[in-house]
Each structure stands twice: as structure tokens, then as C-alpha cells.
Write a structure and sequence with these properties.
The protein is an alpha/beta fold. The chain is built from 18 helices and 19 strands. It has a domain of about 30 residues.
Length: about 500
């Protein structure tokens, strides 16, 4: 972990008192103990019973407080993800902040034509290439679903495509423990073995239960496989406020916490100390349009609460950023992406996914990824704090210049700008006067972002994988696609 240099904001947001956090936590415990949940996996039910849970006549598993407390005490408060080459890349925990894309978008704005079209496998490669080139994108999710492919084994194909086009850590989804097992095998081959993968995990698996209070067999099987392999996992429900959770913000958070904490109890009983990420997605059902919203203010409120609860519980958190309900790269996109990105950084939210998501999480745009990268860069400067060493306080410099002088030629100005922290310089946002802006083509933010995307895609990509490892990975994926078990229930 000492090799990692994370961004941790010097300026932080907190809006919950300890009394409020306690009330929320106690309510989640009452849901687990008194209401219970449906766990549709026989082995998981037996494990939960061994952890002190009960299976009642109504078929629901009820989880007592001691089981939750034991799980919280054994779960690590931080863990590290490593890049493709095995170098430490993200220390997830505390108030460290990282950003990356989301997964499985069914539509894309074509980066060459601007056409709104179904996503393809080559879009996943492009997302990975763009994230590889951007300094403030720390990890990669697929950003697209390859609609032209047979769904058999598609997530293993997606993993292989990301791995070939990016060296940064990956966050993955899988259909079942079958394809997840193949993904683990491929990653272990890259690392040099299962033990090495456990020591230096290359990816985090994203797994969802189903709200309200249902834990399907395929979700639980993936959770247990991650525990067994030591692969970090985010077990994150996605309750939809007013539809699959209570319409009240507190009720939404309480239910989501109960769903996530049951997963934590199961995961830690299976493998105490295995890396686990806490979270609750903040979906809101717009009661006028019937459309789930990514940028509803109620969702932002819930998100603030969930991240603070994760800090209070001492668990790394799953977060969100860089997404918008807008259908175009416009002022609404800038407002929503900027707001959510700044909130995530102020909160110290750890792993923030969904950069590049537009139109209620249905469409992706590479331009939106590079715009968010710029926002993150700007906010890193904003939230890094003000240095107050003698050179920064500049009392002697002020005395030398005096009431009627200026600082343009003073050595302090030159020295300060050259060695830093200096001034933050935008790559996309306009700082030119009108004449200069017109002379340079009068480009708006969307066009600047599009040209930056084009430049990245035309540049040389990341170092290629070892041909032997690549051939072995392709062989494993081909065998998976040919297996009759792919896609079958767990």
C-alpha cells in the first residue's frame, strides 16, 4: 500500500451526526433481524445458519446483530487493487478517491459519426483505450455491452477486450459463477497463479442482490466464489426509490444497507478478512415520467448518506460519478456531471463508477469521459488544500514589493509557477479571449472533447500482452463459449 499515492481531499463534506448514523444503522439491523430476506441458495443458507442466522417457517433468513458485528469486525477497512503488470494502483478505503467508467451500456454515441447506435465490442476497446490515456481515470469497466455477439460467454470476452486495451485495474460483471470462474482463471494466468492473484488482485467483481430483500442464487454464488478466491467484491443493491424501496430517503438507505450487510455476513463467514466493498446504488423513480433517474436530487441525498455510513462502519465504499440524465453533451450534462463529481470528491468516496453514462444509464459517450476527467483534475486542485509554508505565506515577498509594486517579475512568482503548486491549466475548458477563441476555430466543449477522443484513439495503445498469455486467455474464453453450462442457473 505504501506504493500507492491516492488523492485524499483536504476539504471534506459531512452532513450526518453520530446520532443519525446510529438510528439508520439500528433500523437496518431491525430489518435484518425482524423482517429477514429471501436467500435462494441452499449452501448460503446453511452458512448463514452457522453464522447464527435463522431460517424461519416463512422461508426467510433472519440475521441477528452479533452476526453483523462479527462481519464488520473481520472485514478489512481498506484493500489495494493492482494493475495488469502487478503494480499497486488503488488503495480503496478511508477518504481516498478514484474514478472510472461503468458497464453494459446498450447504446453509444459513435465517436466518429456522432450517430446514436447499439453498442459493439469495439466500443469496449475504445473505452479502455481512452481511460488508459486519461490521468484521472483510475480503473475501467466495460462502458458498453457487445450487442452483436452471442450472449454465451460475453462477459469473459468483455474482460479479455478490456485487458488487451488497458493496463489499469478492472471492475467486472459476470453472468454466473461459471464465467466469473473463467475470468478469475485468466487473471491468475496473467499474475502467475491463484496465490499471486490473491496477493495482488487485478480486478474487483460487481455483484447485485435484487431489491427488495432478495438474494438470488446466481448473485450469492458469485459472492461466495469471490470470497473463496480472495477477489475483491462489491455486493451492491440497486433499490429504486419509490418502486423497489421506500420512497423516503432514510427508508431507501435502511433497506439498501440491510441488503448489503446480509451479503457482508455471508462473505465474511465464508472467508474472514476477504476484501469487501459496501454500497447502495441511488436510483430514483421519477413519479411523473416513470423513468429511473441517475441525477435526481433525492438520489444525491441518498448517496451522501450511504457514503457517510460506509465511513462510519469502516468499510471501503462503492460510489458513483460522471453520469447524467441528459441525452446530449450540453449544459445539463455539465451541471449534473460536475455536481456529482464534486460531491464524490468532497465525501471521499472510494471507487466511483459510471463515468461516461448518459440518458438514464442507457447510452455512453467517450466525449463525456474526457470531460469528466477534466472536472476531476480541476477539483483535485480545488480540494487539495492551501499550502501554508513560509514561501506560500510570502510575507517577505509582500514586504519587498510594497504598496505600489507588482509581482509579475518577482522571482517568487516565477519560482512558484515553475515548481508548483502553481496554477491549474485546463485542457478542454476555454481560457482564451474571444478573438483568440475564434482564431482557434471557435470550438465548444463537445467538439474539443471529440477531438481529444480522436487523438487518443489514433495514438499508440498500451503495451501488448505476452502472446503466450493472450493465447491461453483466448483458449479459456473459447472453451467457455462452447460449454453447454454457460448461462444456466447456478
Amino acid at each position: 500500500m505504501s506504493d500507492v499515492a491516492p488523492f485524499t481531499p483536504a476539504v471534506r463534506l459531512s452532513h450526518l451526526g453520530d446520532d443519525v448514523k446510529t438510528r439508520i444503522f439500528e433500523a437496518a439491523l431491525r430489518v435484518l433481524a425482524d423482517v429477514g430476506a429471501s436467500v435462494q441458495h441452499d449452501e448460503a443458507v446453511r452458512l448463514l445458519q452457522k453464522a447464527g442466522c435463522s431460517l424461519d417457517s416463512d422461508g426467510l433468513v433472519r440475521v441477528p446483530r452479533p452476526a453483523v458485528e462479527r462481519a464488520l469486525s473481520s472485514a478489512p477497512n481498506a484493500f489495494t487493487l493492482y494493475d495488469r503488470d502487478g503494480a499497486a494502483a488503488m488503495e480503496l478505503g478511508g477518504h481516498n478517491v478514484y474514478f472510472g467508467t461503468g458497464s453494459d451500456l446498450m447504446w453509444q454515441y459513435d465517436p466518429h459519426t456522432g450517430e446514436h447506435r447499439p453498442s459493439r465490442l469495439d466500443d469496449i476497446a475504445r473505452v479502455a483505450r481512452v481511460c488508459e490515456a486519461l490521468p484521472n481515470m483510475d480503473f475501467v469497466m466495460s462502458g458498453a455491452y457487445p450487442t452483436e455477439l452471442d450472449p454465451r460467454g460475453v462477459y469473459a470476452v468483455t474482460f479479455l477486450t478490456m485487458m488487451r486495451n488497458c493496463t489499469k485495474p478492472l471492475v467486472i460483471v459476470a453472468e454466473s459463477e461459471i464465467d466469473l470462474g473463467v475470468i478469475i482463471d485468466v487473471a491468475a494466468d496473467v499474475r502467475g497463479g491463484r496465490d499471486q492473484l490473491r496477493e495482488r488482485p487485478y480486478f474487483l467483481a460487481y455483484v447485485e442482490p435484487v431489491s427488495p430483500l432478495s438474494h438470488p442464487a446466481e448473485s450469492v454464488a458469485k459472492l461466495l466464489l469471490c470470497a473463496d478466491a480472495g477477489v475483491p467484491v462489491a455486493y451492491v443493491p440497486a433499490p429504486l426509490l419509490g418502486a423497489t424501496s421506500p420512497v423516503s430517503s432514510a427508508g431507501h438507505v435502511v433497506q439498501g444497507m440491510a441488503e448489503c450487510l446480509l451479503g457482508l455476513v455471508l462473505h465474511q463467514h465464508r472467508a474472514p478478512g476477504a476484501p469487501f466493498m459496501f454500497g447502495v446504488n441511488q436510483g430514483t423513480l421519477d413519479m411523473v415520467s416513470g423513468q429511473p433517474s441517475y441525477a435526481a436530487v433525492e438520489g444525491f441525498m441518498n448517496y451522501l448518506t450511504v457514503v457517510e455510513m460506509a465511513k462510519w462502519l469502516g468499510l471501503p465504499n462503492w460510489g458513483i460519478s460522471g453520469c447524467t440524465d441528459s441525452q446530449a453533451i450540453d449544459a445539463q450534462l455539465g451541471l449534473e456531471v460536475g455536481e456529482l463529481t464534486l460531491l464524490s470528491m468532497l465525501l471521499g468516496s472510494n471507487l466511483n463508477h459510471d463515468v461516461g453514462f448518459m440518458g438514464f444509464g442507457l447510452t455512453g459517450a467517450l466525449e463525456e469521459i474526457v470531460i469528466t476527467d477534466e472536472f476531476v483534475s480541476m477539483n483535485k486542485k480545488l480540494l487539495s488544500g492551501i499550502p501554508v509554508q513560509d514561501e506560500d505565506l510570502a510575507v517577505n515577498v509582500i514586504a519587498e514589493v510594497g504598496p505600489k509594486g507588482h509581482y509579475l517579475r518577482h522571482p517568487h512568482t516565477r519560482r512558484y509557477l515553475r515548481k508548483g503548486p502553481g496554477q491549474w491549466r485546463p485542457r478542454l475548458l476555454n481560457r482564451d479571449n474571444r478573438d483568440r477563441w475564434v482564431e482557434c476555430g471557435g470550438l465548444d466543449l463537445r467538439e474539443k472533447a471529440r477531438r481529444k477522443v480522436q487523438a487518443i484513439l489514433e495514438s499508440e495503445g498500451p503495451p501488448t500482452l505476452d502472446p503466450v498469455l493472450l493465447a491461453l486467455a483466448e483458449e479459456r474464453v473459447a472453451a467457455l463459449k462452447a460449454s453447454p453450462k454457460v448461462g444456466s442457473p447456478s
